[in-house]
Amino acid sequence: MLEKSDIKLAIAPIAWTNDDLPELGGENTFEQCISEMALAGFAGSEVGNKYPRSPEVLRRYLAPRGLSIASAWFSAYLLTKPLQETVDAFVRHRDFLHAMGAKVIVVSEQGQSIQGLQDVPVFDGKPSFTEAQWRSLASGLHRLGELAQEKRMDIVYHHHMGTGVQTAYEIDKLMALTDPSLVSLLFDTGHLAFSGDDPLAVLAKHAGRVKHVHLKDIRPAVVEQVRRERLSFLQAVKAGAFTVPGDGALDFRPVFAKLAEMKYAGWLVVEAEQDPAKANPFEYAVKARRYIREHTGL
Q1: Assuming Cys at both sites, which of 15, 246, 248, 294 could form a disulfide with 217, CB separation 3.0 to 4.6 Å?
Q2: What residues in the chain have per-residue pLDDT under 50?
Q3: What is the distance between the alpha carbons of residues 252 and 189, in angstroms, rounded to a whole number?
Q4: Mind listing the pLDDT tens digit for each residue in 62-75?
Q5: CATH ID of 7-296, from 3.20.20.150, 1.20.1050.10, 3.40.640.10, 3.40.50.300
Q6: Taking every annotated instance into account, which residue ranges of this chain make up the domain Xylose isomerase-like TIM barrel (predicted)?
């Protein structure tokens, strides 16, 4: 069983208000979001686009609700922009998260990414890196990892639909090219299932690199529609490809068992971007929290 002393449970605000599609949940306030997170029984949050970026101000909102910041997404452009641009932006991001007490920084390479493009098919249009690009990505991530460790933090790479690190093969390649002391892995069940890979196999293979976990489920009929109709990632989100644990097709019990076996310590973050007009964020947060409690005791 997962140890309560090792695990903290968080939920991402993307269910309330979507960073890539601001029209999804535009009416939901920051205060509503964090209040419902706490009411549903979560102890932490990642950072969304409506969150104050002043650590002092943000702490004043979070503390009465018993919430902490688990991490926040950082878009790297190591393949398409000068390294220093990404470094400068990363340092600002790092310092904000450090001030909030976070230990990990979520990083995803967005150079050539199609995840934010409305009309590019997510399966057919995803980028593929050349060998030179893979080496540049690894080198850039090493630099970000060094900067993170200046604050005793770690970067966790987020494999993601519509990017050059989407599949199990691409995760394997990135892990092989990067120094384990500088680059760790964010394990996301939903993105792996969406890509057609076995989440449990990836977790088992890279257990030693995993320092952050996103718990996300999928609706297979919608994923098949995305393939058949050549939909974009954003169209997939609006169609309902993702949902929370306990509402989709994945059995998370083997995942929880593997995390326990590898003595995972850190955040488990429920993340499922949906249209809040169709999937009430609070109701789905409660559903996810109940599912985790039933199958882990947490």
Answers
A1: 248
A2: none
A3: 9
A4: 999 999 999 999 99
A5: 3.20.20.150
A6: 38-294
